[in-house]
């Protein structure tokens, strides 16, 4: 059982964008940040349900495939689930439609209680007000021996990194400068000391860094 | 004639370190930031005058060799020359000894007038109070058709990048987190739009990004 993170950031370290509008809740920068990942065959199959075998099949796709492999539970922040964009909508069920791509128990950290949701395809959403370590205990039990993903956003990921709870961190860096948003790397001086770091460049120009214990 | 920058930064974007002491004017982080570059055969030959052929000969060395190729003049900030560390020493002649590795005219941007220095091996230091564009005009004339390097620190480099005056930017990213210092990337949103960006990973784990017009 490992605790894993996969995150996409810009070269200047921003993991979220700030150009969201009501009409475009992810913002235009988002598509540039996640473009190489969204272009992969594995993303298209797993997230978009596209069975036509389209999409890239190179290094980015290898990471996209690994992303979904052997995950038994996920922990995510309220923002990733959409509770900041839709705080007062009791019927909000996330961004991912009736059959979300997680296919495992997902624990959403939020101070506002909400009843759990059971979705098609094996995904459930449970809303927790808990510390990172407490949420990890819950997720670990639910994961049944498989890995637990800390799904983001960057503030949650940083909390887990600072608490020393992450075993495997994969960061995909898009070679673009956003200059605003939430920084992943703040207050993580010397993080590399506890890990072996491996780097490679994908055909898309995306830089992949992997931190392993 | 191109205007070129080569800079080493940490993964979180810091190009200078802040752990300097009177006994260690570069700070301990500095050796981690520039370690892969300082280990190359080209650096050892050109900067240390080590003719034993020692040092690495891989991808980092290719960049270190290119660093010195076809440079006709350099512009640097007062901090790089050492005027912040030794502001009141009229005999200060830079960090590099009697025969600095530049071997070309060097223009040091500073508000405090100082007489020019002529060093062994073809290096001269001229102290200028000038705008980035004015200093570039001076350096361009001195470069005699060769390239002009903007040598740093990061604040000077950022001034030139923001002014759109840089043709070729090479950034070597050490996969370490410093969490303090001067950030290279601040206020450069969308810089990549004017360039073709090429990335590769060296044997040392250093990430090399090159922005070409």
What does the model show?
Chain A is of the alpha/beta class and 213 residues long. Chain A is built from seven helices and nine strands. The first copy, chain A, has a nine-stranded mixed beta sheet, sandwiched between helices. The model of chain A has no long low-confidence stretch (mean pLDDT 93). At the A-B interface, β8 of A face β8 of B.
Describe the SSE topology.
The structure is a homodimer of 213-residue chains.
Chain A: E1 3-10, H1 28-33, H2 35-38, H3 41-46, H4 59-68, E2 71-77, H5 78-81, E3 105-109, E4 117-118, E5 124-128, H6 132-143, E6 147-152, H7 154-162, E7 168-174, E8 196-201, E9 207-212
Parallel strand pairs in A: 1-6, 1-7, 2-3, 2-6, 3-5
Antiparallel strand pairs in A: 4-5, 7-9, 8-9
Count of distinct strands of chain A: 9
Tell me what portion of residues of chain A adopts beta-strand conformation: 15-25%
Q: How many individual helices of chain A? A: 7
Oligomer: homodimer
Morphology of chain A? globular
Known CATH architecture of chain A = 3-Layer(aba) Sandwich
Largest interface: A-B, 26 and 26 residues
- Proportion in helices of chain A: 10-25%
Uncertain stretches of chain A: none
Largest sheet of chain A: 9 strands, mixed
Determine the structural class of chain A based on helices, strands and strand pairing.
alpha/beta
CATH superfamily of chain A: Dihydrofolate Reductase, subunit A
CATH class of chain A: Alpha Beta
Number of domains of chain A: 1
Give the SSE string of chain A.
EHHHHEHEEEHEHEEE
- In the CATH scheme, what's the topology name of chain A? Dihydrofolate Reductase, subunit A
GO molecular function (chains A, B): 5-amino-6-(5-phosphoribosylamino)uracil reductase activity
Domain Bacterial bifunctional deaminase-reductase C-terminal (chains A, B): 3-185
InterPro entries (chains A, B): DHFR-like_dom_sf, RibDG_C
Pfam family, one (chains A, B): RibD_C
């Amino acid at each position: 059982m490992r605790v894993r993170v996969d995150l996409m950031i810009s070269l200047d370290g921003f993991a979220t964008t700030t150009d969201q509008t009501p009409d475009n809740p992810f913002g235009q920068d988002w598509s540039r940040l996640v473009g190489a990942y969204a272009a992969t065959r594995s993303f298209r199959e797993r997230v978009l349900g596209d069975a036509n075998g389209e999409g890239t099949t190179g290094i980015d796709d290898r990471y996209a495939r690994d992303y979904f492999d052997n995950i038994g539970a996920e922990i995510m922040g309220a923002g990733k689930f959409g509770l900041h964009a839709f705080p007062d909508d009791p019927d909000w069920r996330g961004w991912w439609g009736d059959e979300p791509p997680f296919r495992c128990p997902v624990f959403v950290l939020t101070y506002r209680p909400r009843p759990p949701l059971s979705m098609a395809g094996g995904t459930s959403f449970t809303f927790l007000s808990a510390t990172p370590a407490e949420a990890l205990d819950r997720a670990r039990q639910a994961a049944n021996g498989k890995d637990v993903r800390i799904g983001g956003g960057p503030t949650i990921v940083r909390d887990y990194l600072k608490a020393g709870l992450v075993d495997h961190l994969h960061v995909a860096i898009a070679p673009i400068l956003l200059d605003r948003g939430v920084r992943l790397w703040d207050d993580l001086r010397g993080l590399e000391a506890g890990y072996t770091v491996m780097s490679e460049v994908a055909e898309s120009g995306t830089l992949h860094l992997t931190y392993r214990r």
